[in-house]
Design goal:
The protein is about 0% helix and about 50% strand. By secondary structure, it is mostly beta strands. It has two domains: about 25-110, Immunoglobulin-like, CATH 2.60.40.10; about 115-150, no CATH class. A hairpin with a 2-residue loop joins strand 1 (about 25-30) and strand 2 (about 35-40). The termini are far apart.
Length: about 160
C-alpha cells in the first residue's frame, strides 16, 4: 500500500507599490504614433493592474502632454494622436492596488515627418490692357489653378 503525501505551501507578500519599470523602448511608427515596449518591474509587489506612459512634447512652440494606460499584462502598446515631427519625453510606471510605482528613466522619441503634403496654388496675372479712344481701358486677367500632391519616403 502506497501513501501519498501532499505538502502545500502558501507564500504571501505584502502588497505595496511596484518598483519602477526597469527599461522601455519607444520607436516612431508614423507621423502621429509611437510603438512602445517595456519590461515588468523587478519587484511587482502584488498584481500589476496597469502600465501608464506619460508623454510631453519638448519641441519648442508645441504644447502636447498626456498619459495612456495599458493593461497590467501588456508589454507593448501604441501611443497615437501625437503631433507630426515633434520630439516627446516619455516615462513609464506600473500600478498595483496600492498605487503607482516610481517613474522609469526618461526616453526620447521624435515622431516622423509627414510623408505627403498638398499644395494649392492660384496664380492671377494681368494678360492684356486695351485702351479705347474713348478713354476706357479693358483689362484681361488670366487665372491659373494648380494642385500638387507631394509624397516623401518615410524618414525624410
Amino acid at each position: 500500500m502506497q501513501s501519498v503525501v501532499i505538502i502545500l505551501y502558501s507564500i504571501s507578500t505584502t502588497l505595496a507599490v511596484p518598483s519602477s519599470v526597469p527599461s522601455f523602448n519607444a520607436t516612431a511608427e508614423s507621423p502621429t504614433s509611437v510603438v512602445l515596449s517595456w519590461e515588468e518591474p523587478e519587484s511587482p509587489n502584488g498584481i500589476i493592474t496597469s502600465f501608464v506612459c506619460h508623454y510631453i512634447s519638448v519641441t519648442m512652440g508645441i504644447s502636447h502632454e498626456g498619459e495612456k494606460t495599458f493593461s497590467g499584462t501588456a508589454r507593448e502598446g501604441i501611443l497615437s494622436n501625437l503631433e507630426e515631427y515633434v520630439e516627446y519625453r516619455l516615462t513609464m510606471y506600473a500600478t498595483t492596488a496600492k498605487g503607482q510605482g516610481n517613474r522609469s528613466k526618461e526616453e526620447f522619441v521624435t515622431t516622423l515627418p509627414a510623408r505627403e503634403f498638398n499644395l494649392w496654388l492660384l496664380y492671377v496675372y494681368l494678360q492684356a490692357i486695351v485702351c479705347l479712344p474713348s478713354g476706357y481701358c479693358m483689362f484681361t486677367f488670366r487665372l491659373l489653378y494648380v494642385y500638387l500632391q507631394v509624397h516623401f519616403p518615410l524618414g525624410i
